[in-house]
Amino acid sequence: MKQPRYLVPNLYTADPAVHIFNGKIYIYPSHDVESGIPENDNGDHFDMRDYHVFSMESIDGEVTDHGVVLDVKNIPWAGRQLWDCDAAYKDGKYYIYFSLKDKNDVFHIGIAISEKPEDPFTALDSPIKGSYSIDPCVFREDDGSHFMCFGGLWGGQLQRYRNNKAIECGHEPADNEPALCAKIVKMSDDMLDFAEEPRDLVILDENGEPLRAGDHDKRFFEASWMHKYNGKYYFSYSTGDTHFLCYAVSDSIYGPYTYQGVILTPVVGWTTHHSITEFEGKWYLFHHDCVPSGGKTWLRSLKVVELEYNADGTIITIEGLAK
Ligand code: FUB
């Protein structure tokens, strides 16, 4: 598949988290709606309320919509804005990890559980203790342990925290200071808690220095994803206001990671968000853009395209074709 393919023509969906469960491709996206809320830097216009799950038997095959599997009205601690989620499987149970504001308008990461990847999920009564900000990505290590990466700037509220504690007034570091990092944390064996304090996922430049906060073309903004290729950890993410999907590589899951380059140049729309998954020996970039909605940034549509590596393990940049 060399040309991107739109996946869900009849529903606006974004932020695809894709996993292979039971030999099938399962997609866990955000479900965009026309909220009527004016667009702002806080992301208030992204006022999503539920998740659908989709599956495909093959990468070119028909996309099955399994309907609503989690609704904000069934999440006991919900305030508003059901943003990006991810899914995981362990010991006979499927987990959705989701970003949601509580009743005080503070983002946390919640959990919902199901017996099947496409059945309705039941939300736990409260978010993960010690969780904050948005965009959870849950990565399964080869030994069966799981790690979560998370975080997002601006509307994602990451700038309101330092050392995992809320600060009085949220702010970003000065341009010449180290950028705020995505967080990485090991999950407890039962998948319901953090097993440790979240750590900074540090990204270094080619000189071994942490990326600077002013380097908007490269620094982490949101949309964490982790995958492993040829024994190395690939952390990919969005640069937000410069609209790139970038990646950084490390020999250790905790890092430090070294910045490598751009996976996807800007797409039509403001956000860019993705997952990278191997299926039947090929790698794919699932992502979104706003072409079908005529460029409305809050009404996004899922796409997939093959992702290819050079012999040295670097990723061949894909053109997002923003006008
Ligand atoms: O879908 C809402 C938010 O937009 C996500 O959480 C961010 O990553 C961005 O894609």
Explain what this protein looks like in three dimensions.
The protein has 323 residues and is mainly β. Strands 16-20-19-18-17 form a five-stranded mixed beta sheet, with no helix packed on it. A four-stranded antiparallel beta sheet has the order 1-23-22-21, with no helix packed on it. Helices cover 0% and strands 41% of the residues. The chain has one domain: Tachylectin-2, Chain A, CATH 2.115.10. The chain is built from no helices and 23 strands. The model has no long low-confidence stretch (mean pLDDT 97). It binds beta-L-arabinofuranose.
How are the SSEs placed, and which strands pair?
Elements: E1 5-6, E2 13-21, E3 24-31, E4 50-56, E5 64-71, E6 85-90, E7 93-101, E8 107-114, E9 122-123, E10 137-140, E11 146-150, E12 161-162, E13 165-166, E14 182-186, E15 199-201, E16 203-204, E17 222-229, E18 232-238, E19 245-250, E20 257-264, E21 275-279, E22 282-289, E23 301-307
Parallel strand pairs: 16-20
Antiparallel strand pairs: 1-23, 2-3, 3-4, 4-5, 6-7, 7-8, 8-9, 10-11, 11-14, 12-13, 14-15, 17-18, 18-19, 19-20, 21-22, 22-23
What percent strand?
35-45%
The largest β sheet comes out as: 5 strands, mixed
Count every helix, treating DSSP H or I runs of 4 or more residues as helices. Answer: 0
The oligomeric status of these chains comes to single chain
Strand order of the largest sheet: 16-20-19-18-17
